[in-house]
Amino acid sequence: LQLGSNPIFGTCIVDLEEKPVKSGGDAESLLQDALKASPNAEEAVLLQLVVKQIKRPSSTTTDVSLSAMQLLFVKERGDYLAALHDKDAKLLPVPLFKDAVGGNSCTLVVAAVSGGDAVGETNILKNVLRLRKVKNSPSRSGNLTRFVEFTKEQERKCAATLESTKDAAEKARNTRILHKLKVVLADAQELMAKPEGTKPKVYTSSRTSQDKVTNGVKEKLEDTKPNGGSVLRDSEKKKEDETKDKTDDLTAKVVPLSRVVCEKGTAPAKKKAEDAATAKATDTATPSQPKALEGGDSAGSDSETWQTSARIAVTVEKKPTSNTIELSVKGKARRYGVDEHLQYTEGKPLESKLAKRMQIALGNGHNTALLAAEVIPGLAVEKQVTWNIVQSILEGVLKEKKDGVTNEFTLYMSVVKGKQVVCDLFSGSGPQPLVVAISPLYGVVLHETTPKVVKTAAEVEPALRSALTKASGLVKDDEYIVCTAVLKQILEGDVKVASLFAMSALDMRPYVGVMEKDPQYVRQLFGHAFIGSCSSVLLVSYAALDEKSTEALNAQGKMVLRNGKSRGGSVKTFVTNMEEAVAAAEAKVQKAATPKEKEPLEASLKQLQTRLENAKELLQNPKTTQPVAYAAPQEEGNAVDSTVRVVAVVTEKRESSGPWNVKADGDGFIVKAKGEEKRFPVDEVVQRASPVAGIRSTTVDSMVEQLLRGHNSALLTADDEGVTAGTDMLMHCARSLFAKLEEDAEVFVVLSAMKPDCSAAKDLQKDGAEYEPVSYASSPLFGPCITGAKMEPVTTAKDLLAKLKNGASVCEADKAVLVSLLIHKARRPEDVVLSSFLTVLAGTNVKLYSKALEVRPKERGILQYAFGGPCVTVVFLGLLAEASAAEAAVDFGELAKSVHGTSNSTVRDGGLRRFVMFSTKAQAQMQLRLRNASGTEKERLATTNANVELVLKDAEEMLRDPKGRPPKVYKQLH
Q1: Are 462 and 546 contained in the same domain?
Q2: Under 8 Å between Cβ of 726 and 718
Q3: Quick check: 142 and 65 in contact, CB under 8 A?
Q4: Are residues 54 and 126 in the same domain?
Q5: Using N-to-C axis directions, what is the helix angle for 935-960 and 912-932, rounded to 10°?
Q6: By Cβ atoms counted within 10 A, which residue in 224, 293, 328, 719 is the most buried?
Q7: Residue whose C-alpha is closest to residue 252's, from 209, 201, 303
Q8: What is the pLDDT of residue 107?
Q9: For residue 824, what are the contacts with CB-CB under 8 A and spacing of at least 6?
Q10: What is the pLDDT of residue 89?
Q11: HSE of 336 in the Cβ direction (CA atoms, 13 Å)?
Q12: Separation of alpha carbons 881 and 723, rounded Å
């Protein structure tokens, strides 16, 4: 099976016959023919359609959109549904369905039951229920114009990077990336220029064979062209709604698109026969030769590093006679070579040449990684081969004595499961969200975990034993242990920093899962070992060749990691390079013409300056300073796009034949005012045939999903005279929230009426309340609200809608602004998550928002989180097409123009467990400063410390007993 990808509509099967589809009848005919050709109940049938839509909003403009639809018929295969949920590469080609399950598709599962086969149908329904709990990401636009604009920007950035790059390898890589971008851009522009006669193109990776794809293992973290390199790495790719998928696996191979596939497994009969012959020839051929010890990029003396991953296989059975692994995989013989095939005797040191090479490389300041699958049944965690090797490497580095050189390690060890740190093994602290910190010198470490400093070889074994003893009862199935040992090597006039990154799992699932982009794994954690500046080793320990060990060894044999060239860990060299980077960044800031251009450049400059300052501090005070790692932005699949979105609803009056003053125009709207037309950009335009018609916005729907995932959200509305789009959308969101609410979740509401000038407010849930001078309270987790307003629990959508409708009526009568704050409280295993949904119904008072944007974030009052804070924000504009006066629409458009494309700060979930851990550490630092302070500074710190203690106390009480307990807010001091 060969897969291809288009950056807009995703993955499909290539090299199959094309069938044009012009009508629903055509599609039905194709489907019926396919089902007739596949009478076997064990075979799945896939109909895959690519839709090209051509729209002409005006005589001079043409919009082209691309999208795809998959219809998968699994017949009686309940296990196929389970495989879709589990991303089981044994039963199906996982990448083909990555959008449908957990991706950006709108997915529907239909189960037809008859009662005839109770067991089989129960299995089907059980797996349908599992799929029903999968939450897909918001769907993305297939608009080609936006894609071209985005790709042009990436091309410009890549060209600038290429021009400033001095390293030859980096220059070559960027040259390849630029070429691929040009190919993709040219194809997209050709399609836009001639939409009727041009077919969309699909790009394949010629290095990804059928065997590699169908068995769930690829050669690299990203697919590559024959000449290597990726179009856009994750770290370089700006998250844009207009791109449905990354373009890092593209070549210029063109394939047909609309197709019918009958699959048992995956491929048509003729192709299966050809593939079977190929597989037979491959399986019986000479085994692949190990590369880490013989030739290639890893050849040479023991002190050299390597870029192609090495393999070690370790058995407790009789001593191996060769470095060839012989397996029987699904009845077929398979052989592959390893660099070392060793025998392990429990309790004795393992003699490994590769381990010795890792020790030497690490001691010379180069990063190393050991990725292990420990498949020996019943072997205690503390006796695993991984830790035997880790101990020998660390002891070896510390025992080596060189004149003028001092070595010490800082160890970080944790048990991880999915996206959670189950246990920090040096502190014993319980579950917390997994956050990766990245050092530009030594790679990755788990953020906010406890370090253990080891300065002598004698300290290594007790430190490891203490940690592994805690881990022994925690690693049961899909948990794994992560260790980062950071070497700080102090020399005369320099410091070297490097790491040994070690990971021990009970099988190969984490590594294969990351390559298949399984969303349950945090890919940033693996990125350093997979593609970073690092020499990596893949290890499998096994006993008998049973099913589990065969699966692990087979995956090891297929996996090849291509790492970046080792840069060495010299801090002195790093400081020199960073000084050049800071100077270049300062020059870019100076050249920026507008605040919008300058803002991201200044943020980047600030990051570079921080890294430079920390490196200089380490160089100047190496004995008392530790190398710093920086919390990474949350990755794709886990990341939340904090870009402020703008939605415009254009409503037409019933039976109106008057001239329009406002009309939709693609990704924006046009206002006709004073004899001229002005166009304003938005992210989504919704056209409504009448004021009573329903409104559905995918942008707002995705915002409600973010609320349910634990992220703060804000809906900021403005409506022209006679339009109630904001109120209608608030009611829709309230219904949607309760429809999707988990069983044990709770919702609290704060409702206030606020004067348009924000000078006074009254509580809409307090009888007889009057307008009082406004002040604000706040929660460090879910943001601001109006001081003194009651926080009431609501248990049904009916109750909430009644409160909102009453509040809207009061505000209409008072000519006031409705401020609604919903607080969502979700209970997770060992955690409580708080998030807010702020809605402001400003009516025509759009200046409420404009004024907030003109002041500092701390002075924005109720909008402090919505504009600039950790919040997913949508600005929602209700416009009237036949508005008699267009001035209001122009004001709305100016607001849209000012916020469109701007970004709020990083959005994280409101987990109390993480908040308590972070605040406890911050408080410890504050108390240290308090002891050394004096005068007014001491008073200020004492007040802040008391406030932190109060917040921590409330958070811990909520964690102990969350049910029915309302969240606390605290009066703001500014």
Answers
A1: yes
A2: yes
A3: yes
A4: yes
A5: 160
A6: 719
A7: 201
A8: 92
A9: 707, 708, 710, 737, 745, 746, 747, 834, 835, 836, 837
A10: 79
A11: 21
A12: 11
Query: For the chain, give me the number of helices (H) and strands (E)?
Result: 22, 37
pLDDT at 14: 78
- Dig out the tokens for 659 from the structure: 């001239």
Give the end of a domain, one of 899, 919, 947: 899
Going from the C-alpha of 729 to that of each of 645, 715, 726, 804, the distances in angstroms are 15, 9, 5, 12
Residues forming a β-bridge with 825 = 746, 834
Q: Are residues 124 and 259 in the same domain?
A: yes
- Could you tell me if residue 404 is left (phi over 0), alpha (psi between -120 and 50 degrees) or otherwise beta? left
Verify that 256 and 293 share a domain, yes or no: no
In single-letter form, the type of residue at position 514 comes to: V
Cα–Cα distance for residue pair 701/714, rounded to 1 Å: 12
CA dihedral 176, 179, 184, 187 (to 10 degrees): -150
What is the Rg, in whole angstroms, of the alpha carbon atoms belonging to the chain?
Answer: 30
* In-domain check, residue 607: no
Mean pLDDT of the chain: 81
Q: What is the pLDDT of residues 127-145, one digit of tens each?
A: 888 888 888 887 778 888 8
Distance CA 282, CA 287 (A): 9
What one-character DSSP code corresponds to residue 658? S
Tell me if 563 sits within 8 A of 533, measured CB to CB: yes
- CATH value at residue 676: 3.40.850.10
Three-state DSSP state, 713 = strand
Single pTM value for the model: 0.46
| Chain position carrying tokens 């001092």 | 406
Q: What is the spatial distance between Cα 113 and Cα 411, in angstroms, rounded to a whole number?
A: 55
793, two tokens: 């629990």
Contact of 713 with 707, CB cutoff 8 Å: yes
Residue 609 in any domain: the answer is no
Of the listed ranges 602-606, 652-656, 895-899, the one predicted with least confidence: 652-656
- Are 312 and 248 within one domain? no
Start-end of H helices in 776-864? 797-814, 847-854
Q: Which of 899, 918, 939 is the last residue of a domain?
A: 899
Angle at 872 between CA 866 and CA 878, to 5 degrees: 75
**For the chain, what is the domain count?**
3
Structure tokens at 698: 């995918």
682 in the same domain as 550: no
Q: Position of tokens 């692994």? A: 325
Residue 961 reports pLDDT greater than 90: no
**Among 190-194, 357-361, 912-916, the range of highest mean pLDDT:** 357-361
* 548 is a domain residue: yes
615 lies in some domain: no
- Compute the C-alpha angle 194/198/204, nearest 5°: 135
Residue 517 pLDDT > 50: yes
- What's residue 239's pLDDT? 35
For 908-942, write each residue's pLDDT tens digit: 888 888 788 777 767 777 777 788 788 888 888 88
For residue 318, the enclosing domain spans 286-569
Using the 8-state DSSP alphabet, how is residue 575 labeled?
H
Task: Give the list of residues 6+ apart from residue 22 with CB closer than 8 angstroms, or none.
Answer: none
Strands (E), 344-426: 368-374, 406-417, 420-424
CA distances to 10, 156, 237, 252, 479 from 153, in Å: 21, 5, 11, 20, 41
Residues 694 and 671 in one domain: yes
| Close Cβ partners of 593 (under 8 Å, ≥ 6 residues apart) | none
Q: Averaging pLDDT over each range in 441-455, 552-566, 692-706, which range is the top one?
A: 441-455
- 577-593 burial string, b = 16+ CB within 10 Å, else e? ebeebbeebeebeeeee
**446-475: average pLDDT:** 92
Q: Highest mean pLDDT range out of 384-393, 558-567, 873-882?
A: 384-393
Please give the pLDDT value at position 633. 66
Tell whether 776 and 868 lie within a shared domain: yes
- Amino acid 348: pLDDT: 83
Which of 224-238, 259-273, 361-375, 647-661 shows the lowest per-residue confidence on average (mean pLDDT)?
A: 224-238
